[in-house]
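Page header: ASSEMBLY MODEL / four components / 414 residues total.
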Amino acid sequence: MSEALPSVPRKRRKSARPGEIVEAAAQSFIEHGYAGTKLDDVARRAGIAKGTIYLYFAAKQDLFEAVIRDTLEPLISGVETMVDSYDGATDILLQMVITKAYENIVKSDARHVMRIIIGEGHKFPELRELYYETSIKHGVALISRVVQRGVDRGEFRPGPATQNPRLIMAPCIMAAIWSMTFDEFAPMDIDSFMAGHLDVMLNGLRA
Amino acid sequence: MSEALPSVPRKRRKSARPGEIVEAAAQSFIEHGYAGTKLDDVARRAGIAKGTIYLYFAAKQDLFEAVIRDTLEPLISGVETMVDSYDGATDILLQMVITKAYENIVKSDARHVMRIIIGEGHKFPELRELYYETSIKHGVALISRVVQRGVDRGEFRPGPATQNPRLIMAPCIMAAIWSMTFDEFAPMDIDSFMAGHLDVMLNGLRA
DNA sequence: TGCATTTATGACCCATCGGTCATTAACGCA
DNA sequence: TGCGTTAATGACCGATGGGTCATAAATGCA
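Prediction written out in full:
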């Protein structure tokens, strides 16, 4: 009954494969989560057989690690570069950083990686740690630097928000979660939410 | 080889079962997440056989729905009662509500239910909706009421935080997530975080 | 006490999926 | 053109776990 499917001719692409596999895996993880992603599906998306994945990645978990790195590293380093090369008023800088944070997290696929870490990271401390080291740690440090810069220059006054940068990032994280979880029941206008977020923070910080 | 384990005598407890099963399920869901929870494990915790679960719940998903209801309804109605019966200054009321929110979410098992909805709710719109209706919707409405009360009484001035109550809850949600996900890499002192949260919000709101 | 009814049991079924490996085919060098 | 090397394949394996159901035990009523 089963006609032998005309199997596609093989291609040997040792150097291009890893990137293609990670790209396919990212899509699948985003759509189905960690446990929900099938290696067969990743292979199909990458146009290869399942076994081929194992020529480049030892296990599913390694694949997800690669997705974390490939997705997050460019985003973080982009913001870091921006901060390093800026030398105007700090309130404008903070505004730029927060705007970028919404672009990088709330409006990008990176939020799905975060969702997976939150929801399924329980049993994978190594993945959680990698995510923390790759993303969260840098984000917190970045906000700290910006806020400290404002205080040092006399533009911001010390207070709870300068002491705990996580207070400043919180609305951004929540917006990302909301957009993935509750948007169909109570839609959130990201831009006006972000404007409110900025307003509250800057009013609390300005000297 | 396998000695027949001395099977425990059966007990018929039609009315007590559902509660016991939900209780056991809650523990298992909290420890292992939705997909990670095995009905066999739930049964063992409840001291019954797996088949017995199906006398009271049609499927795993119904069990999780019962957990959502049992866990969240009492918490929300507790806060609602508190707000309804208070008649002092609104900043104190908001402080009470936020403090209760940390107790109910960040410091309680309810945060794990939230984590499951965020992380695994993707494929279960009914569960997401139930969570929204049972918990989030009431939480947002409650904050709105408190803030509106402050504005009406001239204690708060209108601004972004009065317009979007989600800005006020955000740090609490983030603290819950942080405590479950990143605490081992960067511990968070909940009480000082909450104090900072209150400080920022009240400063932004007071007329 | 005997029997009908209801509740409880757990072996079993079957679909799923991560990971393996013997086989095959593409490649490039001589 | 032939051959050794190595990338690629996909059938297969074994573990897992949600859900089923024939069987058995508890209960309570007559």
